[in-house]
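Q: Convert this sequence to structure tokens.
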Amino acid sequence: MASLFDNNNNKTRLFIFIFTLCYSLFLVASRAKLQQLKHSVKADGSLSFLVLGDWGRQGNYNQSKVARQMGKVGKELDIDFVISTGDNFYEDGLTCVNDPAFKLSFSNIYTAPSLHKQWYSVLGNHDYRGNVLAQLSPVLTKFDSRWLCLRSFVLKTEIVDFFFVDTNPFVDQYFTNPKGHKYDWRGVLPRKKYLSNLLKDLNSALRKSKADWKIVVGHHTIKSAGHHGDTQELQPTLLPILEAHNVDFYVNGHDHCLEHIIDSKSQIQFLTSGGGSKAWRGDVKQWDPEELKLYYDGQGFMSVEMTKKEAKLVFYDVFGNVLHKWSRSKELDLTV
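A:
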């Protein structure tokens, strides 16, 4: 009888089986603690990255045009990585690790050399409508080494700590009124325990952080003048934790726009980068102009440059035009 290892197809199947098994065990083990990753800053102590959300449409709805401008800005800033705020694959996530949408919406679109850096991604609600374990699987990293997607995790650098949070299970509607959609809640149920552990772990990780800057990343809005508006379930749960630990920025997608809100009470910067492809023209709510510094109902992305003492944000449209600039110093806040 031929050995299992004599056949390349069997090798591939064995590889996928082992990785899937290990990853399933990891999912169970990680429920009690957020995984911590590390990324080094540049030699001069600085860090630069791009933020993109709501993008995976196989190049359609100007996704490819946004990608080209990202490549140009990424080269200019010599970015260290890219953050994805979720809704990575429309309309219903991935079906399996071999779903061609992974290549058609990711690998074949973000081809610029400057974008061949690590991507750190969270899941959006559209991703949960597919096979979640496929999108979280390390098998995808075998296909494209840039890809890394986890539910919730901490990314530590020498100057800033990033806290990536799975905001999807907070939203009641996805459970009580899914409107014909099917969500893949494997690894989440029982929901109450999952959310309790997540909030406890996030609170603990933020409390222990000694970083100069603290940035929380999630898919859903906390404050937004866009189509979805504020995510009500996050107001009494996630927001108090951000305020208690003096988080600098909350970065999200979900609303298909580019947006900058400065909370007048906490001074947290609420940054929406959800213009990776399809946008919603003219869909904006009234907001205090003292807080709403930018609302752009078109496609685009955001760049961030950071040092130990300063952070610079720039929002770009689909043509690479600068829409909005803002900077903060740890000694003095400045808006440009």
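The mean pLDDT is 92.
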